[in-house]
Amino acid sequence: SYELTQPPSVSVSPGQRASIPCSGDKLGDKFVAWYQQKPGQSPVLVIYQDTKRPSGIPERFSGSNSGNTATLTISGTQAMDEADYFCQAWDSSTASPSWGFGGGTKLTVL
Amino acid sequence: EVQLVESGGGLVQPGRSLRLSCEASGFKFDDYAMNWVRQAPGKGLEWVAGISKSSGNRGYPESLKGRFTISRDNAKNTLYLQMSSLRLEDTALYYCAREGFFRDFDHWGRGTLVTVSS
């Protein structure tokens, strides 16, 4: 599977901006999605196609993708945003196309 | 409202087989590709298998090819995962996920737990 790398943890103060990076080979050439997962819950899509927000996702969530790094940014972080975040991308460059997930980043709001 | 409800998980011995099901509702099932994703206890997400709308294309990570088989019955709005030669490391929560139009997974079920243990 396509390998994506995320930092294990990121900390942010309430009201500040949190940035979570995700790196992979030529990631900028692929569409990246981001998922939020709170303890005991299923993942929820928060960003798709690099920058788009599904209906119901707050505007404070945004995404970017260029070169080998995609970034999820949460502006004005709230306590409710504390969760694990996973990036995902589809790799069709090999004989066996597949999805890769990042290892996840635990966002702590303190 | 989109709903995906997984079932079929449980405790199974190493080397045995198990079939998971995912019943879909709230959308036109045969308009969407579907996938299975698993999450081992305390670990990250791992894509397990995917299938196109009409079952013409199926995909698996190299590490699982030959042991897992994905299928679907569009008449029953149901997705399946047949798992064979199960190993201890297959222990995980298995999620059913609908594939969106940009290679994302836009809806997820609650998962069904598979525990492989002797």
Q: Work out the largest interface and the residue count of each chain.
A: A-B, 25 and 25 residues
Overall pLDDT level of chain B: 96
Point out poorly predicted stretches of chain A.
none
Largest sheet of chain A: 6 strands, mixed
Number of helical regions of chain B: 0
What is Rg of chain A? 13 Å
Q: Which spans of chain B of ≥5 residues are poorly predicted at pLDDT below 50?
A: none
Count of alpha and pi helical runs of chain A: 0
Q: Can you write the helix and strand succession of chain A as a string?
A: EEEEEEEEE
How many strands appear in the DSSP assignment of chain A? 9
User: Could you describe the largest sheet of chain B, including whether it forms a barrel?
Assistant: 7 strands, mixed
Overall 3D form of chain B: globular
What coarse outline of chain A follows from CA principal-axis ratios? globular
Could you state the order of secondary-structure elements of chain B as H and E? EEEEEEEEEEE
Write down how many β-strands of chain B occur, each being a DSSP E stretch of 2 or more residues. Answer: 11
Provide the helix percentage of chain A: under 10%
**How is the quaternary structure best described?**
heterodimer
| First and last CA, distance of chain B | 40 Å
How big is the Rg of chain B? 13 Å
Distance between the termini of chain A: 34 Å
- Portion in beta strands of chain A: over 45%
Describe this structure in words.
The complex is a heterodimer of chains A (110) and B (118). Helix content of chain A is 0%, strand content 45%. Chain A is built from no helices and nine strands. The radius of gyration of chain A is 13 Å and the shape is globular. With 118 residues, chain B is mainly β. Helix content of chain B is 0%, strand content 51%. Chain B contains no helices and eleven strands. In chain B, strands 2, 4, 5, 6, 9, 10 and 11 form a seven-stranded mixed beta sheet that branches. A four-stranded antiparallel beta sheet of chain B has the order 1-3-8-7, with no helix packed on it. The model of chain B has no long low-confidence stretch (mean pLDDT 96). The chains are: A mainly beta (110), B mainly beta (118). The A-B interface holds A 1, 31, 33, 35, 42-45, 48-49, 52, 54, 86, 88-90, 96-104 and B 35, 37, 44-47, 50, 59-63, 65, 95, 100, 102-111.
